[in-house]
Amino acid sequence: MDVCGFLVVSLLLSCLVETCYGVAFSSLQSTLVVTASPTPGQVLKAGQDQITVTWSYNQTYPSGTDSTYKTMKVKLCYAPISQVDRSWRKTNDDLNKDKTCQFNIISGPYNRTSGNSSSTWTIGKDIPTATYFVRAYAYNADGVETAYGQTTNPQKTTYLFEVTGISGRHVSLDVASICFSAFSIVALFGFFFIEKRKAE
What's the superkingdom here (predicted)? Predict the structure, then answer.
């Protein structure tokens, strides 16, 4: 095999390895500053309340560090307390296998000249009851995670908020159920009273 052939094979193998194993979260720099409107401990309602997210480049890093950033994705992520005994929400350092951040808030091009960027998102009706934080990822031209930022600390214990999911039950249905149950009881007693009168 000549040198060119060897280089091509090596390149293909390296791409294959990266595709199979993904990027390690621990290898990413936290170069993004991310804030969200919910206050710590605030309880929001799925399908009703909104979250405003703001993100920007952390100026403490050298200028040009973000030169490879092309796109952004901001996501709603499970806090550790809502991952306990739930393997389908498990954190994994391999971002291809990580299930911490399953809900997209916003995605789009990375704007290097705009300073702060922000977006307001109405919490989806499919968001389950849990404790959350917000994380943003920057991607390079190949769509690979390059950097991140989040609203909580590295241990994911601060600035957490809660979302109450839609249970599928409505007040009107509960009232109708109660009324129907009460009517059934009254009808049952009425039936027995009528039968007793007939027997007499």
Answer: Eukaryota
